[in-house]
Every structure is written in structure tokens, then in C-alpha cells.
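Researcher: Let's do a round of design. I'm pasting the C-alpha cells now; please hold your answer until I've finished.
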């Protein structure tokens, strides 16, 4: 019986450890050598939103809890490839690809995880190329309609 319980515990802990979300991916890579990491908490996001004119971008910024930026451009190629792979694998763990396109030599991918209320809880923008690798993680309670409106005004 003890062996069975131990095996079950070991198996469930392995499953838990292999479950990935964007926050854990960013936490893993932020301490790697040559990685530049910047975090903007809710207070900073609210400050920026308050300085903007009323409109789509202000509404969008007020819904963001935090933004994290990882720049891996100075890292070894293997680290950049591993980061890219981890972000792509998020699609297997409940994240949906919102957009993917190529601009010049860079591949740009946006994945997001929605809650049961259809609001975006996390979104990751990944820009990767031969020498560039940038990840942006945005968390909050973001209305997809506000995102569409903000993108529409940017074009």
C-alpha cells in the first residue's frame, strides 16, 4: 500500500511539474545569463493609463495587471531556441494562438489564455529571429473587444 501511495504521489508530482504556464516559463528564463528582464506591476500600468487620453488604449491598459519583458538577444542560441519552444508548447496547455506573422526576418507570435468568462487572463507576444528573441507577458482581466478596438485604432 505504501509503495502504491508513493508511486501515485511521484506520478502526480511529475505531472504537476511538467504543467507549464507562461508565468513559470518567464520565471525560469529571467535568471539565465545575459537575459534582460523588466517587470511593470499594476501600479505602473495604472499610472501610464492615467496619463493617456481617454480612448481604446486607456481602456486596455486599465485592464492589465502586469507586464513582463524578457530580452534574450544576447543569450546563446540554444537558450533562445529553448525559450521559443516553451512558448510554442503553451498551445498544448490551454493557450490559443491569436496571431502569427512574419515581419522582415522576425517571426511574431501571440498566444493567450482565456478564463471561463471569455476574458484574456494571460497573453504572450514572442518575437524571434536569427539574433532576436523577445517575450512579453501581459496578465490581467482583458476584454478581447477592447484589444480588437485598440488594434483597429493603431492601424
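Researcher: That's everything. Go ahead.
Model: Designed sequence:
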Amino acid at each position: 500500500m505504501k509503495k502504491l501511495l508513493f508511486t501515485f504521489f511521484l506520478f502526480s508530482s511529475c505531472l504537476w511539474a511538467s504543467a507549464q504556464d507562461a508565468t513559470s516559463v518567464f520565471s525560469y528564463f529571467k535568471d539565465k545569463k545575459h537575459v534582460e528582464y523588466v517587470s511593470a506591476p499594476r501600479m505602473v500600468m495604472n499610472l501610464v493609463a492615467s496619463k493617456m487620453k481617454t480612448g481604446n488604449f486607456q481602456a486596455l491598459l486599465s485592464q492589465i495587471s502586469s507586464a513582463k519583458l524578457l530580452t534574450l538577444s544576447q543569450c546563446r542560441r540554444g537558450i533562445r531556441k529553448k525559450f521559443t519552444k516553451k512558448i510554442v508548447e503553451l498551445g498544448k496547455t490551454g493557450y490559443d494562438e491569436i496571431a502569427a506573422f512574419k515581419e522582415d526576418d522576425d517571426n511574431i507570435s501571440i498566444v493567450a489564455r482565456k478564463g471561463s468568462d471569455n476574458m484574456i487572463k494571460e497573453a504572450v507576444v514572442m518575437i524571434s529571429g536569427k539574433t532576436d528573441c523577445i517575450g512579453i507577458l501581459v496578465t490581467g482581466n482583458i476584454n478581447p473587444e477592447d484589444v480588437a478596438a485598440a488594434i483597429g485604432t493603431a492601424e
